[in-house]
Amino acid sequence: GLSQYSSDPRTEWDLSSYCTREQVLEAVRSLRYKGGNTFTGLALTHVLEQNLKPDAGARLEAEKLVILLTDGKSQDDANLAAQTLKNLGIEIFAIGVKNADEAELRQVASEPLELTVYNVLDFPLLSSLVGRLTRVLCTRIKERSHKETTGSAVKDTPVNMGPQLSPTDLKISAVTSKSMHLAWSPPLRPPKKYRVVYYPSKGGTPKEVVLEGAVSSLQLSNLTSHTEYVVSVIPVHDTATGDGLRGVTSTLPLSSPRSLRVSELSHNSLRLSWKAAQGATHYLVLCSAAPDGAED
């Protein structure tokens, strides 16, 4: 499976989309590069929410591996999102190009770092990693699978247990120009934490709030008016993950002054009055002469 990201992650194809090597290679050849920002934390959350689910082709018995390829420092908290994946037994390999932050790559990647972190100076040099990375990936999968079949202690592979682990019924209410209220029904087994991620759908800085698992509501404030927001509520358990909730809602436009009236006219003055706009702290009044030929 493959997802591209900038400020808005996009799934290019799921784990179940193609059945042969040739089909995957053809999809790669047809791929269009997505430029833009570097919100790595949001991208890792997208992978967990959208790509590592049974309905996207993730098999419960299979090892879960994420290969992150980035050419810049993340503009959001990549470490927190990466830790969530690693706590669920998902192994992360981090590959940096050009301006990637080496320290961040080492934070995001799984142990042992000598096998999971790579950095090259330019994109053509990625080809030099293919042979080694392929061997490492295949070896890691065999090692982890062997441990499970021989009964050695390993972290549980994330399993989707539906209502046991997943909150339901996201309700967004009390929407104003600056705020909205979120509430949801908790799963049968309360999670350890909730991660609530929200960002403007047309691009903008994602923000994140981490809540204790006993909490099932949140007030979002300091939002931008007249803007569509994407909201995700992600339950985080010790050894498994439930399905995240997602909602899309627009904040209200700022209120406008109404009922403009003109009075006390003279040869060089007039008085204006209007009904106040709720929440306004100042008004800007513009005045200019009517163009030639227009009504005075």
TrEMBL record:
Signal sequence residues: none
Family matches, as Pfam families: fn3 (PF00041), VWA (PF00092)
Protein location: Secreted, Extracellular space, Extracellular matrix
Keyword Secreted in annotation: yes
CDD domains xrefs: FN3
Family matches, as SUPFAM superfamilies: Fibronectin type III, vWA-like
InterPro entries assigned: ECM_Assembly_Org (IPR050525), FN3_dom (IPR003961), FN3_sf (IPR036116), Ig-like_fold (IPR013783), VWF_A (IPR002035), vWFA_dom_sf (IPR036465)
Chief site of localization: secreted
Residues in Fibronectin type-III domain copies: 166-255
Residue ranges of domain VWFA in the record: 1-133
Keywords: Extracellular matrix, Secreted
Keyword Secreted tagged: yes
Name of the protein in its database record: COKA1 protein
Organism this protein belongs to: Certhia brachydactyla
